[in-house]
Amino acid sequence: MKKRYIALLLAIYAVTLYFIVLTGVNNLADRLRSTDEEGADNKYTANGIYSNQLINNYDIYVDFDPIKKMYNSKQTIIYVNNTDTTLNEIYLHIYPNAFKSEATTPYIIDDYGTPYVHGFSKGDFQIYKLLVNEENTAYNIDKNNVTILHIKLKQPIKPKENIKIYMEYGGVLPRAQQRFGYGKDTYNFGNWYPIVAVYDDTGWNLDPYYKLGDPFYSDIGNYHVTIAAPKDMIIAASGNIISEKIENNKKIWKIEAMLMRDFAWTASKEFIKLEKEIDGILVKGYFIRNDQKVNTDALKAACDAIKVFNRVFGKYPYEQYSVIASNHIGGMEYPGLVFVNEKFYNNQLLERLKKVIVHETAHQWWYSAVGNNEVDEPWLDEGLTTYSEYIFFKEAYGKKYGENYFKKYIYNSYNMRKNQLNDEVIAKSLDKFKNNSEYHAVAYKKAAMFFYEIEKKYGERKMYNILRNYYMNYKFKNANTYQFLKICEEVTNDNFDHLANKWLYQK
């Protein structure tokens, strides 16, 4: 009897194991299905939070050679069709492909400086292999938009079904002090890997890598990334570094970045690291210069910003946050990580350094957690992030300080450029801005003035309720202008047509 019972258990185990292996890819979507914060069966957690959507899964192995400035990767994407449409094709953004020529590079020379401090430097990107569900599949790169990869599927994907895309590719970093490139001290990997384009109510979003702004739009995903690099390198990355070990004279980093809409990292031999926990979040500062006072002040600015925004907007949704001194001409945000120009890290520029850190930290709420189409509606995250600077300085240093900050850095900054603007429409796409100066004046400053007017008209309490509701309703999703204005109307119990027309759409 006992032998028959054991045999029966073994048979059941064998059948179950076979079923799991056989249906592993198809069932991944079910394993990634999760629930709301009240909890229910079949919930999937990440960083102590929940997702209520089926999400894409990225598994990436990257081997980095800093001498050749080259990386080679193997990448698997489990893509979930979250649309209500059967898909016969898939599009991916391959942003590094833009750096093959000066004509297509997105980095420009203007009043804000040039990333190419030594003249134009060519980057590269090559696809070596591409499989869909283990089969060779035809693909092509758009000749008129070299950052779009088109895959024609042999079998269509029905809603809620998924496919596995496997790729092998390599790239070369340009010598450029920007989000994708390298300088004297750091190697920056922003927008460096193939990422699935967003399919929304308008269809596939296939915008080019514009020279202005941050022309990105992406869905939340789960990332499992392995980085191999020389053992003397220090890596900072989105998400959590799970392990580090030495293998064959290289260091191997295992990183997990759950429920993030992008994954970025940077490498340097020079990094000095400081850490501090605030509200249960590990805040990490990576520095190039060994200036204890400046580095401590920079880390404090990041911690203070996290603390203020946690209270005003809602809790930061990840376990870690990294602020990185980088060879980057300004600041740049990614989920769980931001780049800040290492030249700002000196006593003479402490005010500017703090301002940039506060701005980029606010992007962890407005762009990272709550996403939006930064090509079609750049004002929605940049304007709200600039307005969040004012919130921080008001909450941290008092109302008088905050009002003075708003007047100096937002109101006056906008009015200094006002007479030089092509037009003052806030709600417009990147391709409608004449230059960087107009983009910053309108999408950042004037848009922040719109949020400021909402606060002055309806009061600070209702404005903070608007922001909290917006965050809680659209965390880990993509939002748009209509949805933000709808939140405004619900909180204020007022019609926003007149205010929106006055600020967002009129010239």
Automatic annotation (TrEMBL):
Signal peptide: none annotated. Residues 299-503 form the Peptidase M1 membrane alanine aminopeptidase domain. It comes from the Bacteria. Pfam families: Peptidase_M1. Keywords: Membrane, Transmembrane, Transmembrane helix. The lineage of its organism: Bacteria, Bacillati, Bacillota, Clostridia, Eubacteriales. InterPro entries: M1_LTA4H, Peptidase_M1_dom. It comes from Crassaminicella indica. This is M1 family metallopeptidase. The chain crosses the membrane at residues 7-25.
